[in-house]
Amino acid sequence: TSRRKSEVDKRTVLESGWRKMVATASVRAEEMSNKQHVQKKNLKVSKTVLRKEVDKLRDNWINAGPGVPGVDPEVALDRLRFAKDHLAQCVRKYEMAHNGEELFALPFSEYPELAQTEKDIKLFDQLFSLYTDVKENMNEWNLLQFAAIVEGMEDMTATMDNFALRCKKMPGRLRAFDAYKNLNKRIEDFQIVLPLLQELAKPSVMIRHWDELRALVKNDFDQESADFTLEFIISLKLENVADEVLEITDGADKQLKIEQEIKEITGIWEVRDFTFKDWKSRPIPTLQGTGILTEELEESIMQMQTFLTMRHVAPFREEATELLANLNDAADTLEQWVKVQLMWCSLESVFTGGDIAKQLPMEAKKFSKVDKDWTKIMQVSQSTSLVVPCCQNEMLKAKLPEMYGELEKCSKALEGYLEQKRSKFPRFYFCSNSKLLQILSQGSDPTTMNAHYETVFDALEKVDHDKKDKAIIRTIHGSGGVGHEEFPFIKPVPASGNIEDWLTTLLHYMQLTVKALCATAGEYCAATGVDIPGLRRFVDDSKAQIALLGIQFMWTADTQTALEECKRKKSGMKECNARQNNLLLELSSWCLQDLGTKVNRKKIETLVTIHVHQKDVTTEMFQLYKKKLIHDANDFEWTKQARFYWRPQASDDCSPDGSVVIAITNFDFAYSYEYLGSKERLVVTPLTDRCYITLAQALGMSFGGAPAGPAGTGKTETTKDLGASLGIFVVVTNCGDQMSYKDCAKIFKGLCQSGIWGCFDEFN
Fold first, then answer.
1. How far apart are CA 167 and CA 164, in angstroms?
2. Measured between alpha carbons, how far is 226 from 146 in angstroms, rounded to an integer?
3. Alpha carbons 183 and 227: distance in angstroms, whole number
4. What integer pLDDT is reported at residue 404 of this predicted model?
5. 684 and 469 in contact (C-beta within 8 Å)?
6. Rg of the chain over CA atoms, in angstroms?
């Protein structure tokens, strides 16, 4: 019961509280209704005000905003700030109105002009934030002096490049506005000016270049003063004359390079000196290494001439012209100096001693005077040493032409003297001037000629003089070293008087000696025929040249006789072929024996080489005879061969006592009796035969021959071998582009007067 009573009490209390709360809620609802009415009225008023503000904001933006054409960027910046403040107020009012509409569950009002204006302001803010950044940086940089600008050039360039990139990325709508154009031009101008300042800061830019710049901008500024700041530099409007400024700085670079190279060339020739060396045993200095010096001078002259053609050389033209004049003067003097030295060196040994000086007393006296002047000049030059000062020596420049003229007279007199000697002994034409002078200067001592015989004879290496009287020559020595051939002259050669006279006598005696040996061999072969048992003794007793001729005499006589008798004696050609074959077997068997010296072995091998061909020819004749294609010794197959005869009743230019005749085709050639020593001969091939036939026909008609063919086929060797067959000295000349008509004339004179052969290798 008590529990129920408690619950009734609680319920009573709750009912009383609920009624109070309902009554209060009713009162509050009436109050809220009254207030909402007032708030809604206020919200409507504020929306009306906001609409007017937005319209005003839009109107101001369009008619008095930063985007109005012709507005100064600074004014536009202030208008943008004002528009941003006005926009912020409108946005706050819009947000309050929007919240009220949301609170009262009213439909939201739209303000498109506000959204558009906000969008426009954000767009312009991009432009003017960049404008502000550029302006702030420029204000800071404007105070920098030129030296500080140069130091901060890298940072300034990077910053400005960043601004240019931002400007480039601006929306297209902004590009039509003056603010954008102004900003873009300011950035571009500064990007032009900065590299110009970098160029002007280069070490190559001198005072004269600043003077050019002052004249260009028509402003007498001082680049060293504190007022020469970036602001001042920008005021000079360098961007308007950028090309001209770059031309000035580019010219400065080129001028610096020219100046440095002129200084380098000047420095080289201030210390470049001559190298001197005493001339032989005399204490007279002579110039060394002039070739390199001349090349260096020519190179320096070419460089200076090139500089003087450049328009940028103007500041150094006087200096360059003077240096070029000095170098040209030095080059001319050195060229003359080298000519005089070459001539002095070539004549010094001739006119200061020896036999030639005695025979040209007037020229020796002239040379003696030149020699004194030369000695004095060279000693003075050695003490100076430096190239340019040496070449500027007035005494040197005055004396060189005089000395050259006197030396030229001496040289011409010497040339005439040498020509006279050569005309008396024509083989001297094949000696160089220096070699001939060496021979003539020692002419009073005939033994000194032993060092030079190989120059004027084919195989004569030296001679033996009488032990009691060195003016008598008794024995010939051939070339080949150990075991070389030696034999006495037919009669002693008197080596007295002028060297060219007794050399002519020696040549004639040599030919007489060889002819006498040929006569002995010819008579032996005529008496014995193909005497195989006595052949070894004949070969051992004979010199290589004579032994070979003997074998050729034997073969020619035997084959000729067999051909002449073949009509009467049927077995004649067969027997001849057998004899020649046996002769070859005998000769070749000797090669298997110990022949002693190399010279002797070469002699035997040469006999085998030649007789192989001779045996082949005989075999061919025999085969043709068997086929009845050849009938006598007049057949061309026989007459085309080189045939060797000793004709005791004939005479030749050497002496009237017989003659060695070599017949090829229808021409007979007299043997020349030059001592040829023990030399190898070519293997005779069909091509060799054809060359012999052709050359023999040419010589028979007083023509020359010009074998043609690839390198290494034996053109020169075949010509030399034919000469050896005829016992004639063949002089081989290796032609080149250095040969002059005078060189050819000298050789032709020698060939014509001496009667020997000339072979011009690589004549083309």
1. 5
2. 9
3. 26
4. 94
5. no
6. 59
Tell me, rounded to whole angstroms, the distance of Cα 301 from its chain centroid: 20
Please list, in sequence order, all residues whose beta carbon lies within 8 angstroms of the beta carbon of residue 208, skipping any fewer than 6 positions away.
315
Cβ contact 671:518 at 8 Å: yes
pLDDT at 129: 73
pLDDT of residue 269: 92
Collapse the DSSP code of 175 into the 3-class scheme (helix H, G, I; strand E, B; otherwise coil) and give the result.
helix
Say how far apart CA 528 and CA 36 lie, in whole Å.
170
CA distance 448 to 467: 15
91 contacts: CB under 8 Å, gap ≥ 6: 114, 118
**7 CB neighbour count, 10 Å cutoff:** 9
Note the pLDDT tens digit of each residue in 514-540: 999 999 999 998 888 888 888 899 999
Residue that is written with structure tokens 């290496």 in the block: 461
Overall size of the chain counted in residues: 764
Q: Pairing relation of β-strands 667-670 and 643-647?
A: unpaired
Strands of 552-695, DSSP E: 643-647, 659-664, 667-670
- 3-state DSSP call for residue 190? helix
Query: How far apart (Å, rounded) are the C-alpha atoms in residues 597 and 483?
Result: 6
Residue 762: left if φ>0, alpha if ψ -120 to 50, beta else—which one? left
51-74 confidence digits (pLDDT tens): 777 777 677 777 777 667 767 777
Decide if 721 contacts 683 (C-beta within 8 A).
no
* C-alpha span between 662 and 725 (Å, rounded): 8
Angle of CA points 371, 377, 383, to nearest 5°: 135
What does the DSSP assignment read for 469-486?
-TTEEEEEEESSSTT--E
For residue 208, give the nearest of 254, 257, 248 by alpha carbon: 248
Residues of the chain with pLDDT under 50: none
In sequence order, the 6+-apart residues with CB closer than 8 A to the CB of 55 are 113
How high is the pLDDT of residue 679? 86
Q: Measured between alpha carbons, how far apart are the two ends of the chain, in Å?
A: 159
